[in-house]
């Protein structure tokens, strides 16, 4: 777990660039899943988390390249939805065997919720 701790940043040290922040979220989710026990339950939840966490940033990039306001809003809504889904999969992961894993799951869940709030604010200001 020591190597993972060096690769992650505390929440109060997050970049302002949302593309970079969403990239780091996906990267940190991937770092976490490399350390999880490979139970039957975790295998599927891990797949879902990897997909949803990566989709947050991919859709944000798409939003920034959108050709219309309608397309932009749709992509931002998808970002918010994928961040919410990531928080869900993080909650389901079996992290209880290690306090360090529990702490990292909790930290990433907080980050997913913060991303949801950011995308929600973007939606409110853009509509």
Based on helices, strands and strand pairing, what is the structural class?
A: mainly alpha
Tell me the name of the CATH class: Mainly Alpha
Task: Characterize the largest beta sheet: strand count, sense, and whether it forms a barrel.
Answer: none
CATH topology name, in short, is de novo design (two linked rop proteins)
Overall strand count: 0
What Rg do the Cα atoms give? 15 Å
Could you write a compact summary of the structure shown?
With 127 residues, the protein is mainly α.
Question: How does this model look, in words?
Answer:
The protein is an all-alpha fold and 127 residues long. The chain has a single domain (18-29, 41-126), classed as Up-down Bundle (de novo design (two linked rop proteins)). 78% of the residues lie in helices and 0% in strands. It has five helices and no strands. It has helices spanning 2-7, 18-33, 40-64, 69-92, 99-126. Helix 2 (18-33) runs antiparallel to helix 5, helix 3 (40-64) packs antiparallel against helix 4 and helix 4 runs antiparallel to helix 5.
Descriptive terms for the model:
mainly alpha; disordered N terminus; single chain; 78% helix; 127 residues; de novo design (two linked rop proteins)
């Amino acid at each position: 777990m020591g190597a993972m701790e060096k690769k992650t940043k505390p929440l109060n040290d997050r970049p302002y660039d949302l593309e970079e922040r969403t990239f780091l979220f996906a990267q940190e989710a991937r770092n976490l899943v490399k350390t999880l026990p490979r139970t039957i339950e975790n295998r599927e939840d891990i797949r879902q988390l990897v997909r949803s966490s990566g989709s947050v940033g991919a859709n944000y990039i798409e939003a920034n390249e959108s050709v219309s306001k309608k397309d932009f809003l749709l992509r931002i809504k998808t970002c918010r939805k994928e961040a919410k889904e990531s928080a869900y999969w993080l909650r389901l992961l079996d992290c209880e065997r290690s306090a360090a894993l529990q702490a990292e799951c909790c930290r990433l869940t907080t980050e997913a919720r913060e991303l949801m709030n950011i995308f929600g604010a973007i939606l409110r200001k853009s509509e």
